[in-house]
Here is the input.
Amino acid sequence: MSLADAELCKGSTTDSDSVCEGSNPSPAAKHPDCSAVRMFFYHQPKRNGGTTMTKILFVCHGNICRSPMAEYVMKDLVQKAGLEDQFEIASAATSTEEIGNPVYPPARRKLSEHGIDCSGKRARQLLNSDYEKYDLLIGMDRANLRSMYRICGGDFAGKMHLLMDFTNRPGEVADPWYTDDFDTTWRDVEEGCRGLLQKIIKKAVV
Here is the structure.
C-alpha cells in the first residue's frame, strides 16, 4: 500500500546534555505557521528495498513519558493505515536521567487504555549520529529542541520540529511529569501524530 493510497483511520488511537543559552530555537518553533515548517517536506526520505522509508525519532527530556507515547501512538496510526513497511519510528531522551528505564507507569496505562502496548521499551539517549539516521526529529517542547540542537550540532537540514507544529494549535505537548494530567498529554500527542502522518501522506500525493 502506497502513501498516496493510504487513508487515515478516523477512530482514536496519542544534564549531561545541557544547552548553551545562546542556542537559536528552531525556525519552526519561532514561526510555527510560516513556510519554515515546510522545510520538512524538502527532505527526501530514504528508500529501503525500493520502498520509501520515512524514519521518525520523537524526543523528550527523559524518554519515559511524552516521546514514547508519541512513538507508540504513531506506530499505531501507521499500522492502522497499512504503512508499517514504510516507516521506522523510535524515541529518545535529551538527558541521561532515565536511561534504561521502562515507560513511566501512568503513560503506559494511558497507552493501554487505547489498546496500545509499549512493553519492552527502554529509555535511551539521543545521539549525534541520530541526525543522519532519521528524516525527522520531533521534540515535545522548546527546551527539547534546544537540547537536540546541542547534541546534534544544529539543524542544517531542517529536520527538527515541534510535534504540535503539525496541528492547528502550535505550541508544546503538555508535560504530565509534574501534573499527572496524562489525558491532556494524550490529546496533544494523538493530535500531533495524526497531523504529522497526514502531512507525510499529502507530500506523497503532491
